[in-house]
Write a structure and sequence with these properties.
With 242 residues, the chain is of the alpha+beta class. It contains 9 helices and 8 strands. β7 and β8 form a beta hairpin. It is globular, with a radius of gyration of 19 Å.
Length: 242
């Protein structure tokens, strides 16, 4: 990975970006604390082996960053080689229930029939399927925040599903730029930003202004995971003194 300093550009991801984003994801989460628990079948495989198995039709259908109800954005820099090719150094996946667009018949068929069928047939054997108990924990955390008596009950929100930065490009503003895209959208909508965090990333999100709204323990594949739900709220404009 070329680490020459260059301004980071945030744009929508497209189908040709899928392979590069998969590489960033696998490298970024290679040493993540949650990976052995949530995706045990991937443990011990090299990045190249994992990439060879990464054949998601969802990624192939990406248009203007849209896959189902999620929006994928990429962080890229211009390389310094002779061709000055674009280098993808990070990406994020966002969604907002209040911004979900009307789906065409084609989109409905892909998201409701083809993708679930693909996941049912292939994902369990590939190792990309998250254990049911983990999915249930994430759903409970979301409900703790936005459900009845939650601290953000009834509020509009943008959900950050994943944010990943290439290891060579950490602490260079890439993650902050990917977060800022969601902050800007939330401020436009008068919404909060929600995410769940790993222990390693928790201090980073706290420093960015997030606060913990709920925590739950998840016992999965012999691991005890403590997972927090966190929100970020836009700052209200200061009222001038009269």
């Amino acid at each position: 990975m070329d680490r020459t300093q260059s301004p980071v550009k945030i744009t929508f991801a497209t189908t040709p970006d899928a392979f590069a984003m998969a590489r960033v994801s696998l490298l970024g989460f290679e040493k993540g604390e949650h990976r052995p628990a949530l995706f045990p079948a991937l443990t011990g495989l090299s990045t190249e082996e994992l990439l060879a198995r990464h054949t998601s039709p969802e990624a192939r259908s990406m248009k203007q960053g849209i896959v189902g109800h999620k929006t994928y954005i990429k962080a890229s820099i211009q390389g310094s080689g002779p061709e000055q090719e674009e280098l993808i150094v990070g990406f994020a996946s966002w969604s907002s229930p209040s911004r979900r667009r009307k789906r065409s018949i084609r989109d409905w068929f892909l998201s409701e029939i083809i993708y679930p069928l693909y996941r049912f047939i292939f994902r369990p054997t590939l190792g990309y399927s998250m254990p049911p108990e983990a999915k249930a924990t994430f759903a409970q955390l979301h409900n703790d925040t936005f459900g009845p008596k939650g601290v953000a009950e009834g509020k509009k929100h943008w959900d950050l599903h994943v944010l990943c930065v290439h290891p060579d490009w950490r602490r260079k503003g890439v993650g902050s730029a990917l977060l800022q895209w969601g902050f800007d959208k939330a401020e436009e909508d008068g919404a909060v930003v929600y995410l769940t965090s790993s222990p390693m990333a928790r201090p980073i999100y706290l420093a960015k202004g997030f606060r913990v709204t709920s925590e739950r323990m998840c016992k999965v594949n012999g691991y005890d995971l403590k997972i927090p739900g966190m929100i970020w709220e836009p700052r209200l404009p200061k009222t001038p003194c009269v």
